[in-house]
Amino acid sequence: MIQKNCYILGIESSCDDTAAAVINNGEILSNVVATQAIHEQYGGVVPELASRAHQQNIVPVVHQALHKANIDKNQLSAIAFTRGPGLMGSLLVGTSFSKSLALGLGIPLIDVNHMQAHILAHFIKAEGQSAPNFPFLALTISGGHTQIVKVTDYFEMEIIGQTIDDAVGEAFDKSAKILGLPYPGGPLVDKYAQLGKPKVGPMDFSFSGLKTSVLYFVEKEVNQNPNFISENIEDICASIQYTIVDYLMDKLKNAVKKTGINEVAIGGGVSANSGIRTALKEAEKKYGWKTHIPKFEFCTDNAAMIAIVGELKYKNQNFAESNVVASARMKF
Ligand code: KG4
Ligand code: ZN
């Protein structure tokens, strides 16, 4: 029996954020994220440390999510968790916690694909967000993925384009590392970029190519002027961001042309980037697209997006088996 007025707890632990959220009829009652600062000193996520931090964080994070939503765990209708893709050690923490809690409470368990959740986050009822109409194109841009997805229905998705090497988040983070900025560098590149002017034109290459050309360019300039980076950080960041955004928009334009679908949504951590948000808004006027940009809190990893997928699946009684296992390379 499914409940009409349902409360779903979402749990996310695929990478380095431990998150829990409660959703009730499409509205988010709480959205708690514990970001793991431990990785900053290593310049990237250390899987073993991520797994350990999830173990420390998951109970307090879930407690806080229930407390903020002002509900008791016995009121929950189901538990939705990220099954994959992600880091195996991290996924295992969320998976085993969710299984145990669902079993203990005697309620259904729902497995969620993290990348689908980044897309379906647009269906959360929240001010400033509008639900896309099917079919639409989704550009998912994160630290692990860069994909253009054709979305025909909630769970009918087809990847029609993707990066051949690095993810766009990596392009931001690795370029930032070359500039001596701490991990994750994406938001910092964004911050400096807004103060600088791009000095390079659009270039057509892969993201790993971008990182290499940033490296060669910076090395050459630093040879002549050791203070080159600190003196030009804003313009360098603006150039990196301009190139990445231009490149993504180029690919999106191709996808719109090829599919004839001009309703476009973005999702994933990099959709918090000011450059891509502005470019997408401008595309409404420039090309007549209808665009959807998620609220900031639903861009980087969060459990609200897991909870909305949980709710959509709950209504269809699409539950996981009790022997469900985490899947590091889960596909759609
Ligand atoms: O979706 P997400 O939180 O985790 C993954 O599933 O990977 O994405 C994290 C990525 C990181 O690479 C981070 O640097 C990037 O999103 N990011 C940004 C911004 N905010 C987060 N990149 C550029 N500009 C931003 N404002
Ligand atoms: Zn993500």
Give the structure's gist in a few sentences.
The chain has 332 residues and is α/β, with parallel strands linked by helices.
Question: How would you explain this protein's 3D organization?
Answer:
It is a single chain. The chain has helices at 47-69, 88-105, 114-120, 168-178, 186-193, 207-224, 228-259, 274-287, 304-315; strands at 7-12, 17-24, 27-35, 78-84, 109-113, 136-141, 146-153, 156-162, 263-267, 290-292. By secondary structure, it is of the alpha/beta class. Helix 5 (186-193) crosses helix 7 (228-259). The structure holds 5'-O-[(R)-(carboxyoxy)(hydroxy)phosphoryl]adenosine and zinc ion. Residues 114, 118, 142, 268-269, 301 line the site of zinc ion.
Reconstruct the topology from this structure.
Blueprint: E1 7-12, E2 17-24, E3 27-35, H1 47-69, E4 78-84, H2 88-105, E5 109-113, H3 114-120, E6 136-141, E7 146-153, E8 156-162, H4 168-178, H5 186-193, H6 207-224, H7 228-259, E9 263-267, H8 274-287, E10 290-292, H9 304-315
Parallel strand pairs: 1-4, 4-5, 6-9, 9-10
Antiparallel strand pairs: 1-2, 2-3, 6-7, 7-8
Helix pairs in contact: 1-2, 3-9, 4-5, 4-6, 4-7, 5-7, 6-7, 7-8
Strand content: 15-25%
- The stretches of 5 or more residues where confidence is low (pLDDT under 50) are 201-205
Distance from first to last alpha carbon? 27 Å
Helix/strand-derived category reads alpha/beta
Largest sheet: 5 strands, mixed
Distinct small molecules bound, one entry per kind: 5'-O-[(R)-(carboxyoxy)(hydroxy)phosphoryl]adenosine, zinc ion
Count of individual beta strands: 10
Q: What order do the helices and strands follow?
A: EEEHEHEHEEEHHHHEHEH
Per DSSP, the total helix count is 9
Q: Identify the strand order in the major beta sheet.
A: 3-2-1-4-5
The helix content is 40-55%
Rounded Rg: 20 Å
Principal-axes shape call: globular
- Average pLDDT score: 94
